[in-house]
Amino acid sequence: MPVAERHPGVPVDIVVRHGKPADAIIEVADDVRADVVVVGSRRHGGFVGLLLGSVSRRVVNRSERVVIVAH
Fold first, then answer.
1. How high is the pLDDT of residue 29?
2. In 3-state terms, what secondary structure has residue 3?
3. How far is residue 6 CA from its own chain's centroid?
4. I want to staple 34 with a disulfide (CB 3.0 to 4.6 A). Which of 18, 29, 48, 64 is the partner?
């Protein structure tokens, strides 16, 4: 966990869930009452800035939380 090691003052919880990725992300965010959910986007072809992957799109469309899509 290199990022956590570089930032020892930042609390990190690792959660493993089974099922559809977007549903699991939303469930965990709801369970911990997250203020923000950060997901990645897939980089495909020449429309990198315009396309979201299916998981990112589903989280953005279904989450009641603020969602940041990083790429």
1. 95
2. helix
3. 20
4. 29
Q: What is the pLDDT of residues 13-44, one digit of tens each?
A: 788 999 999 999 999 999 999 999 999 887 66
Please report the pLDDT score of residue 45 as a whole number.
55
The separation between CA 9 and the C-alpha centre of its own chain, rounded to angstroms, equals: 21
**Beta-carbon-side half-sphere exposure of residue 41 (alpha carbons within 13 Å):** 16
Q: Using the structure block, give the residue that is written with the tokens 């869930």.
A: 17
CA angle 44, 30, 68 (to 5 degrees): 35
The H or E element spanning position 58 is helix 54-62
Q: Which two tokens stand for residue 54?
A: 């299916």
Query: In the structure, what pLDDT confidence band is assigned to residue 63 with cuts at 50, 70 and 90?
Result: very high
Q: To which residue do tokens 């099922």 refer? A: 19
Task: Give the total residue count for the chain.
Answer: 71
